[in-house]
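Hey, can you fold this one?
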Amino acid sequence: MTQVTPIPALRDNYVWLLAGDNGHCAVVDPGEAPPVLEEIRQRGLTLDAILITHHHPDHQGGVDAILAQRDVPVYGPADESINHRTHALHEGDVVRLDNLGLELGVLETPGHTAGHISYYGDGLLFCGDTLFAGGCGRLFEGTPEQMVHSLGKLANLPVDTQFFAGHEYTEANLRFAAQVEPNNEALQQRLERVRALRAHGGYTLPGTLDEELRTNPFLRSGVEDVKRSAEQHAGKRLTSPVEVFAAIRAWKDAS
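Sure. Predicted structure:
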């Protein structure tokens, strides 16, 4: 069985380490090398692969230094510039990590960047900066339509899917979400749990899609309370889930 461990990196990034029972491992989005190499060394692991979700430096900045010590394949989106990429991936491709007994299918999830991809398999979703706990990525290169479509792909996966996002943004995201849905009891309870966890330095990830569907406003643009809040903040009528999403995203960006 694959064990997934967070490796804190940079200011608030997570590198995800996937380790099998046989001492082999892979890493997702190594924004910097030292903590990754140290974790592998301390645990006596053998690195088999590097997986990248998108081109931003905080998700691939450690690739060069890792490859200087470990000669492994680098998987990444075909439509973005990825350091030392050996396998260019499109929707429907599969990454086979044989030594981990794991196959991860590729989903194209543009919005945060134009060529962003996510990896899904065995109930595990590595979604980079597309989906966050309680939020979603900023639209640096994509459109609201693209992000709504991408989030819809992820939301249609089994609800018990565990997702592993690229940043520890959960508390701030949920504080904003509570502004959008002040009457969402599940959201208020989640925010209290997260506040207590973070007060002791705990990790809020992974999360489950089920909890996101109940508490993440960016997955709830079709919910009437979310639509009403978005319209009140935007000062106009919003006629589609995409318009609601765009209004919430602009609200969050300005907050």
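DSSP finds nine helices and 14 strands in the chain. Let me know if you want another pass with a different chain boundary.
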